[in-house]
Amino acid sequence: MMILQREELYLLINNNYAIILALLSGLLTGFAIKKLTRPSDAIPGSLGFPLVGETFSLLSAANSSKGCYDFVRLRRLWYGKWFKTRLFGKVHVFVPSAVGAKTILSNEFRLFDKCLVKSMADAVGKKSLLCVPVESHKRIRRLLSSPFSTDSLSKFVQKFDKLVSERFKKLAENGNSFVVLDLTMKIQFDAMCDLLMSIMDESLLNEIEKDCTAVSDSMLSFPAMIPGSRYYKGIKARERLMRLFEEMIASRRNSKEVHEDFLQSMLERDSFAADEKLDDSEIMDNMLTLILGGQSTTAAAMMWSVKFLDENKQAQNMLREEQLSILGNKPKGAFLCLEDLNKMSYGSKVVKETLRMSNVLLWFPRVALDDCKIQEFEIKKGWHVNIDATHIHYDPELYKDPLHFNPSRFDEIQKPYSYIPFGSGPRVCLGINMAKLTMLVFLHRLTSGYNWTVDDQDLSLEKKSPFPRLKSGVPITLTALKDDI
Question: Superkingdom, according to UniProt (predicted)?
């Protein structure tokens, strides 16, 4: 290989100076013209390579200890608050404002509709409430609402309180450190399976949970059936769950035994008109959706509440004072009821602040049904618009000191669409009230019965999870309050 000496290089540059200058000038001019002539309504960003775009960058972020939102955070540094990218073959625009959120959520079904990335859609199923088209959504949502009625929630609260109380008592007596996320994932899963299908058998619960975990892990993965991949394992686990649900439905129809659960209420509608019942595929896809949604997100939020309260002793003490007052007004050994939860004014603010800061649902995906405008930006039909709840919840113009855990900020009414942990509008999370109630029950039993120490302060996030969860899961050691007196 020829290596140019310094003198030869100087001579080459000197003899071709005009050409080199012209090339550099052309490149700089072209860049400047592109920047200057970019329409004011054009959204900055990079679409990456054809088809795949920046998909692998997103998956790489999800596979790191910083979590998948690091993908968004980096692009904000590069392009500003608004940016576009290409993920899984589709153009995605990240919408960072409450004004933008209002435009999208107040035009649900008319200008925008929900649209999950392929791996998530395949995980929950095409008949899931999260995936069905407008025509089916209202019917399915109405029929799925039975477990979330006031009567159902009233019964659920007492059963869930009994479950939480027993688990905490057993862990405290054991005296060893335990992982909060493991506990919350287990109690949420057991409670949802009991509510939906009356499953109490521990071996069957473990079997279902193992497959549900594989499905959940596949939700943010490259959608290719490559043996051994997360997506492949998730789809195979989903197939096993569907076969199990089919067997349960057949068994219920051939049995005279009556259950008080969601599945029974759906099967009792077999003879109803088509618009007053769910077919078997709709029942199965939505049971899986309710399990996944009811377990993963709420369990993660419970974990974060323990972490935030440990770091903010004043908030922890105020919450404990309120919960001890409620406990003191109940007969010894009595379980909570809805009326008790309605008295938890400060507890409700702790739940709200936990959900604001933890952002277990990082953004809400929608697809544009027609060409439209969000604020000053032009959106093309078919583009995906992601309402960035995380950015909105940490916006200093909406929340003073947004990085500080301060439940009392909710003494004041928040601006519209500035607080959207469950979304808003006709597609607002179906389990919104159940999530709040289970968090209140969990926090009541924790703070009214125990002190705790966090045994691992590592802030690294769990890899490959579609929901932000600490890798440590927050291990704690409990001490009964009476032992501290």
Answer: Eukaryota
Q: What pTM was estimated for this model as a whole?
A: 0.88
Q: Is the pLDDT score of 483 beyond 60?
A: no
Structural domain total, the chain: 1
Nearest by Cα to 364 from 442, 314, 421? 421
pLDDT in tens, 332-384: 989 999 999 999 999 999 999 999 999 999 999 999 999 999 999 999 999 99
Pairing of strands 90-95, 384-387: parallel
Of 112, 93, 115, the residue nearest 103 (C-alpha): 112
Specify the 3-state DSSP secondary structure of 138.
Answer: helix
Q: What is the mean pLDDT of residues 306-310?
A: 97
CATH number at residue 267: 1.10.630.10
Q: What is the pLDDT of residue 18?
A: 42
DSSP class of 275? G
Closest CA to 109 of 85, 135, 141: 135
Q: In terms of residue numbers, what domain contains 367?
A: 55-484
CA dihedral 318, 319, 322, 326 (to 10 degrees): -160
Phi/psi at 186 (nearest 5 deg)?
Answer: -70, -45
What is the DSSP code (8-state) at residue 51?
A: T
Q: What is the pLDDT of residues 443-479, one digit of tens each?
A: 999 999 999 999 988 889 988 888 899 999 999 999 9
Which residues share a beta bridge with 367?
113, 384
- Residue 84 is assigned to a structural domain of this protein: yes
Is 8 among the domain residues?
no
- Written as one letter, the residue type at 36 is L
User: How many Cβ atoms sit within 10 Å of the Cβ of residue 384?
Assistant: 23
Query: What is the C-alpha radius of gyration for the chain, rounded to an integer number of angstroms?
Result: 26
State the residue for tokens 């159902």. 152
DSSP 49: B
**Residues in the chain, how many?**
485
Tens of pLDDT, residues 400-413: 999 999 999 999 99
| 3-state percent helix, strand, coil for the chain, nearest multiple of 5 | 55, 10, 35
Strands 450-454 and 364-368: unpaired
Strand spans (E) along 72-133: 83-87, 90-95, 112-114
Within a domain: residue 301?
Answer: yes
Nearest Cα to 362, choosing from 27, 158, 155, 96? 96
Which residues in 301-443 belong to E strands, given as ranges?
364-368, 372-374, 377-379, 384-387
CA separation for the pair 165, 163 (Å, rounded): 6
